[in-house]
Amino acid sequence: MLKIKLAVILMVFLLLTGFKWLDSKEEKGTGIGGILGGVIGNKLGKDKNKELWTIVGVAAGAFIGNRIGKNLDQKDKEKLAEATIKAAETGENQEWENTESGKVGQAKIVQASVDTDTDKNSNCREIEQSVALDDGSVVTEKVKACKGEDGSWAII
Fold first, then answer.
1. Which of 24, 66, 84, 128 has the fewest CB atoms within 10 Å, measured from its CB?
2. Dihedral angle over CA of 83, 87, 89, 90, nearest 10
């Protein structure tokens, strides 16, 4: 029980300080990912395996957080989201650039469709998001955006 209390105190401290003592996005991602992974691993573990699951969770969370932190900062993510929504609204491909981080990307319309999975039969668009990373590689991911009853588009 003492271990859990100490872990909670440490997590609260780290979250309240905003990891300001960490210098890079990569380090912050590693720290936050490790904590979240440890909590999830601890919850998944059963009695005698709880410590092992916690360790595995910390390692996996730290690795994933590191990769996310290394590649995109908050402004990059905002620019990507804005371009994706604008592509959905206009039906035209959109490019974006963050001059602070040097990252560039694109939101490209792949397919337009009507979503029949819901009762509303919303207009939808499949959009391929791409981001050029610092190492020269390009990461792509397909997302689906649909138009809501209020006329606004959202990623689903």
1. 24
2. 120
47 token code pair: 């009695």
- Tokens (6 digits) for 39: 């909590």
Average pLDDT over residues 54-83: 76
pTM: 0.55
For residue 154, the tally of other CB atoms under 10 A from its CB is 13
Say if residues 123 and 146 touch (Cβ distance below 8 Å): yes
Q: How many H-runs (helices) and E-runs (strands) does the chain carry?
A: 4, 5
Best-predicted range by mean pLDDT (25-34, 56-65, 84-93): 84-93
Q: Order of strands across the sheet with 122-132?
A: 94-97, 104-115, 122-132, 138-147, 153-155
